[in-house]
Write a structure and sequence with these properties.
142 residues, single chain, three-stranded antiparallel beta sheet, globular, 1 helix, four-stranded antiparallel beta sheet, mainly beta, 11 strands, Deoxyuridine 5'-Triphosphate Nucleotidohydrolase, Chain A
């Protein structure tokens, strides 16, 4: 699949995908310091034109929490096809979960992306599901 991409800084590499890997690694465009318990936006150096019918999901790399003490504050980022203007650079919302300042270095690979196909949803509301189910959790509404 060919996807249009624009680098904010052409001196940094395009996202890298090893042969057979499900995801590709993004590089961080700027060196920045994230204080303990702080959320900071780190630019990815990329604007991506996600094809219609697809979404780009952004995850922390598996080594990022252990190696750097950073997690994505929004859990998983979602890039929709309409987020593709020249100034729509993808950013990572990193949360520092350590008790120390964490330095993100320019060119470091801390997040990864995956392109997935999706379907539009049309809800059909019903009164009863008609299935026994597994029990689930009881949630109080009071």
């Amino acid at each position: 699949m060919k996807i249009k991409i624009k680098r904010t800084d052409p001196s940094l590499p395009l996202p890298l995908q090893k042969e057979g890997a499900a995801c590709f690694d993004f590089v961080c465009r700027e060196t920045t310091t994230i204080k303990p318990n702080e959320i900071k936006l780190v630019p990815s150096n990329t604007v991506v034109k996600v094809p219609k019918g697809y979404a780009l999901l952004i995850f922390a790399r598996s080594s990022t929490p252990l190696r750097k003490g950073l997690v994505l504050a929004n859990g998983i980022g979602v890039v929709d096809p309409f987020f593709c203007g020249d100034k729509d650079e993808i950013v990572f919302e990193f949360l520092n979960v350590t008790d120390e300042d964490v330095v993100v270095e320019r060119g470091e690979t801390l997040a990864q992306g995956m392109v997935i196909k999706h379907e539009s949803v049309e809800w059909e509301e019903i009164e009863k599901m008609g299935e026994k189910g597994k029990g689930g959790y009881s949630v109080s509404t009071s």
